[in-house]
Each structure stands twice: as structure tokens, then as C-alpha cells.
Task: structure prediction
Amino acid sequence: MTSDPVKGQASNPANDSVRDPASGLVRDPASNPASGPVRNPASDSVRDPAWGPVRDKVLVVGMDGLRFDRLVALEPPVLSGLMAAGAYGTSLLPYGEAAAPRTESPGEIVPEDTAASGEDAATLGEGSPASSEDTAASGEVSSGRVIRSRTDSGPGWSSIATGVWPDRHGVVDNAFTHHQFAKYPDFLTRANAARPDLTTAAFFSWAALAEHGAFGPAIGTRFVLDGYAITWPTADKQVAAAAENHLASTGADLTFVYLGETDEVAHDLGPHCPDYTAALHTQDAYLGRFLDAIRGRPTFAGERWTVLVTTDHGHVDEGGHGGTSIEERTVFVIAARLSADLGGADLGSADVGSADLGGARLAGPRLVDVGPTALALLGIESDPACDLDGVPLEV
Ligand SMILES: [Zn+2]
Result:
């Protein structure tokens, strides 16, 4: 693994308060657990007689470098259950750099002039599948925008966080050099701004996401560990434990959890090795504990939880990303309403096909749609002035 100032111990004084390795946990005293139901215009039609208006809550889980075809093949039980009960779909990232070397480590810094100089950047389209590897995005060009970015973690998570593509949020590689997070804040920060009564929480094992503000300091709770400093399995384990405890107790209205070991293993060994299988199943087990924690909440009967799971990019078979192959550009979104038995969720009309996995199909869900979807589930409409690329998914 390369030594990496982005993910290493480099200290940013402005962020020291959120990077305490001893506790890692910073709570905003102004962000208190909700003590009772709050009217949500989107929820007024759904009422539980014992609890009054149902309170919507959203959990977004990100698993770095998770290849969807491997997810389908390996059948991790919890993710497979969400797909069967909920809805899912894939799309192609509208960017990638063919000429630049592939990223070998999730934290590798790519010099900006290299990352930004590619001449084959994909043109923003509808995300329809391309027919061969190393082919830029095909499909109708809707706006003429050309996005120059590597299929790296920085651009991917920034797109998930902000709801806009790299040409707007400014992150084209893992250096975060020209980020525009002040103009395009993350969706948890937007939730706080739109509805100060909502509680938000985010948990990461990749410290760069907090250091550079992809998920910003206004989030009510940020639990930040450094996978490079304490190893990724350890960081993910502690992040998962903190998130599980938080979901069981406070249970913020909007929570984001990042897990990184899948990407780390794929970089080292590729996504077809037993270690990748093990990493995926470990993360799947963490997700299962999150769902158990939610279902065990004493207030669960008065809450309506939706779980979204996504990734930032894929990997080539040999391991690595940054380029334009289908394997690197394919990403997914899974969405499921969390009923007590994980069954019976009504998330749209089922599309039963030959590769049917049980759930409904999302039509080309994009990374930029994740944030707007989470906000819409909380009854927050996007302000056109925000200039977002993403739109709420029908989940
Ligand atoms: Zn990544």
C-alpha cells in the first residue's frame, strides 16, 4: 500500500475535532435525538394509531469498490434479501480516464494535470450500457457536458454526497484539490439546512471524506476513523459497531455509513479472490446488524425506515480502477423499505426477467440520485437553485 497523505496521518487543524482516534465521535449538542413524532408532509397519509404520524428515517450504506456482478454471484444474504424485498438497478458512471494509469490504492493521489488531461472523458448521457470495454458512455447526449474524471473513490463518493457530477463538485481524483463542497454540500448537510428538526449522522473508515468536507462538519454526528492508520478491517469493524450502536439508540433521521475493505482487497487481489468474498460477507454481516439494530428500536413501530446501499465504482478483474471499462464504471443502488420481516415492501412494479433477483427494478439509478432520494424520503424537495444533477428515485 502506498503511503498516502490524503488518507494518512496528515493533520488538518480544522478537522482535528472529528478525528480523535480514541473516541472518533463528535456530537453536536444542538442535534438531539428526536423525542417524538414530527409532522412530515410526505408522511401525513400514513399513520399508526398507536404512534401518530409515522416518522421517516433513512440509512444510506456505501461499500467502496463493490462490483455488482460479484455481489449477484456471491449472494451475500442481507444484501440479497434487500434486493429481493426492495428495488435495485445499475448504471454506468459518465466518466473515466483511459489514458491514465489505474489507481492501485484507494488513497492514491493522482496528479491533477494527469487526471484532468484525458481526451476521452465520457459525455454525460443516459447511462445505457456500452457494448465493449474502454468505451466511453454511450446513449443520448442530453446536455453536451463533458465530464473529465477518473473512476476513483474521491469523485464517486463526492457525487453520492453532493448529487452533482465531478464537473460541478470539482473532485476528479482522490486529491480533492478543487472541491466545491461549499457550493454543493452533502445531502446530510442539506437535510440539516432544510429541516433543522432532523438529526443526521455519518460514519467513515476513509478519513478523507471528512477531512476534505465531502461529508461536512454540519452533520450532527461524525464518527471518523482512518483505515490506513489502523487497518481497514479494524476501521470498518469499529465504524460498524459505532453505527450499530447509534442506530439502536439515537437512530438519526438520516444516517450514512461508509465501509472500505472491499475496495482495499480488490486493489490487492482483484474482485474474484476468496478474500474479496470474505470482505463482502463481512460487510454484509455489518449491514445485517444495522438492520437488526433498527428493527430492535423500541420506537420502530412508529418509524418508516428506508435503506439505500450503493458503491462508488467497480474494479477491473486484476484489481484497480480509474479507467473507462464497464467493470470500473458499473455502479448500483439498492433501496428497500425496512419492514419487520424484510418482506412485502412495495417499491414499484416488479420487472421479472431472466436474471430476476426478486425485487423491483430501478431504471438506471445514478450515484447523483442517492442524495436527492434520501432527501425526498424525508419530505425535502430539491430547490432548483441548488442545480443538482440527481433526481429522487421512485422507491
Ligand atoms: Zn473507491
Q: What stands out?
A: The first strand starts at residue 25 and ends at 27. The chain has 13 helices and eleven strands. Residues 43-94+185-386 form a domain with the Alkaline Phosphatase, subunit A fold (CATH 3.40.720.10).
